[in-house]
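are you around this afternoon, could really use another pair of eyes. what follows is a protein written twice so to speak, once as letters and once as structure tokens for the fold. i want to understand how the tokens follow from the sequence so walk me through it. anything you notice is useful, everything is just below.
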Amino acid sequence: MKKPNVLWIFGDQLRAQALGLNKDPNVRTPEIDKLAQEGVHFNSAVAGTPWCTPFRGALLTGIYPHRSGIRGNHDGLPENIPTIAHSLKANGYRTCWIGKWHLAGRNQGNAESVEEPPKDSRRIIPKYRRGGFEDWFAYENNNKPFDCWVHTDREDSTTESFRVPGYETDGLTDLLIDWIEKRTRTDDDKPFFAALSVQPPHSPYEAPAVDLQRHPANRILFRPNVPDVGWVRDQAGRELPGYYAAVERLDWNLGRIREALERLGIKEHTYIVFFSDHGDMHGSHGQFRKSCPWEEAIRIPFIIGGPDRLPDVDAVTDALINHVDIAPTTLGLCGIPTPGGMEGYDYSGIVTGCVDRKQQETPDSAYLSLVVPSNVRDGMDRPFRGIVTRDRWKYVVLEQQPWLLFNLNEDPYEQVNLAHIRRYYHIREPLHQRLLQWAAHTADAFPFPTL
């Protein structure tokens, strides 16, 4: 029997809270909501390292950032570490990457610069830096969604750059649909895997006018943990209309992809894995962007749909799927065992109903980290380690210093830090020990505090 096709579809800085299915009053996401209703919604998914490149490295390798060496936004994917693409190709899959890569490493300039390497939007990534992906329509990094350039390989082995027409999310979706149509017309009968990685809703929070007009700034409702401080609400109010418009544009394009799969007769044979690399604070706790451990930064959408959900499979799971788990889980959907070098857990049994995998004990917590300071103006600048548990406690430490403790059941907006309140030390102690266990398990040499 032919193995299933798989698509990864993900945006950048799309926080889990910014979806219709999660009751955000500012946004409508009917296609994402429908995918969740028909598939499996992992409603507790996390970006263990909520920062672009470290997340993407963990996504592809299944290895934690402190072990892979992909610790910050200027680190490249090591050539000697296999990725999910290598495993898929070895098992007969045709692979393709479309859109943002951000794993080629520093290009040029001062090694101490906090700015992105120059010309990353037009940078040509050589084949040996592409993580094993065969077909390629990608760029390294770009923050101009109406001026998106990608490069691809021609039949004569030269590399061609071209501008994606219109808005990035639309144009890249066109490329994906065209690639899928071509794959279904081939006679090699290979299953396929493709990743569609779009920059929006990442800053500068731009979207087509037809989407923006639905989100006037004076109708934006802030989350309860956005403080009533003038500059914080001013900035969030300027940025959120474009953010929500970009989310809705991604939602619309997901619908286009699903329609194409239906039209081509492969919907029931193609998994769609929809997620994000991390969230976006948008003023919660007075913070902006990512690289911090609060819920708005670490919680990501994670939905597996495509084929209709099996009758004995739950529609929603609180399994704490983390960045390192996505590759093993994807391989599991394809019936491919997790390679020995991957550290993540295979959650595919939750979706496929496979008894053997489903009966395995799933992790009780997920490991959180920022390995190096982000050095960006609006991001967290201190390394941290932490855990979030299935019973919804979160504990985070800085170097040699306990920092945050939240009971997310009682305090979902994280407004009461219990870390330094003596009456909660009996809660903090076992969480600290579990954190140390994660560190030992992943060979993390972070300087943890002694309680």
